[in-house]
Amino acid sequence: MSQEGVGVDLETSLGYLLKEASSALRVAMEEVLRPLGMSVTHYSCLELLAQRPGLSNSELARGAFVTRQTMNVLLQTLERDGYVTRPAEAPVGKALPARLTPRGRRSLEKASAAVRSVEAGMLAGLTGTEQSEAFRILRSMIHSLRGADEGA
Amino acid sequence: MSQEGVGVDLETSLGYLLKEASSALRVAMEEVLRPLGMSVTHYSCLELLAQRPGLSNSELARGAFVTRQTMNVLLQTLERDGYVTRPAEAPVGKALPARLTPRGRRSLEKASAAVRSVEAGMLAGLTGTEQSEAFRILRSMIHSLRGADEGA
DNA sequence: CAAGCTATGTCAGAATGCTGACATGAGTCA
DNA sequence: TGACTCATGTCAGCATTCTGACATAGCTTG
């Protein structure tokens, strides 16, 4: 029963809508980053390092929502191409603090501007109040999703 | 200037928060789907077919936010394993309408329940009003992101 | 009717990300 | 001190997804 014209609760699912929004954001970011020869993860890594110099590979991975193995591969490429530097030896423990080179900083500038304009566009139709609401609501969702199994 | 403890507007970026929420949702979904031997895209495809029987490969791809090539690979696997069926010849045009088999429907049942519980958990801390707000806001974001270059 | 445009299905190769595994450095605790 | 636990960096192999390309079906337009 219920075949064709049914309610189709994909249309009312906040999970689906969240995925849709995230997908749209990713597509829009890829679109502006492609001309700069940069992927979203690539950009995320540089932006993280710009705002928090000295992050380790594992910390960058968590910040960019990828595994540390994935970030490691990316970091090696970025290091080889002269966008970031890491000391040969860890000052403490095993964690190697990464930093942007001048070249990395330069490369990030255009990308950062492009991404900010994408984000600004995304928020164009929203009032400041709505943006605050969105912030609060998304935070709550994240908290609920993570707390479910970490707390148990 | 401004090195360590700076504002770090990743903390205030709605784009970053959106990515974080989406990542948390994906992780939570993978977690409950893994025991069922199902990936998120796998599940998405079955759920789409359950709610809208007869969708074509390209339509499924758009609904699951992947390319039609990716969905084609998945569909071939699902067809081989007896979860979906497609006619040998297209009734019209080239589009092959796909449908769930009884086995596919059975397999989807547990997965659907699991995913719904994840979504319910995600919304646990939110009032009905907040959920409506979230819905409206996400819709606006999607509209703004897509309209930017499709309208130009 | 013919040409052009768009959408579709599909194959092939490349890029990207993940899981598994191992070794190392640091903190904890008996 | 020695064993245990945890986090880290890294290598290797695999899975997933993407881009590029091609042929075909249907519509549109002159």
UniProtKB/TrEMBL annotation, chains A, B:
The Gene Ontology biological process annotation of the record reads: response to stress
HTH marR-type domain spans which residues? Answer: 11-143
In Pfam terms, one family for this protein is MarR_2
* UniProt-listed InterPro entries: HTH_MarR-typ, MarR/SlyA-like, WH-like_DNA-bd_sf, WH_DNA-bd_sf
Organism of this sequence? Streptomyces fuscichromogenes
Q: Which residues form a coiled coil?
A: none
Q: Can you say what this protein is called?
A: Transcriptional regulator, MarR family protein
User: What PROSITE patterns does this protein map onto?
Assistant: HTH_MARR_2 (PS50995)
Record-level Gene Ontology MF annotations: DNA-binding transcription factor activity
Tree of life domain: Bacteria
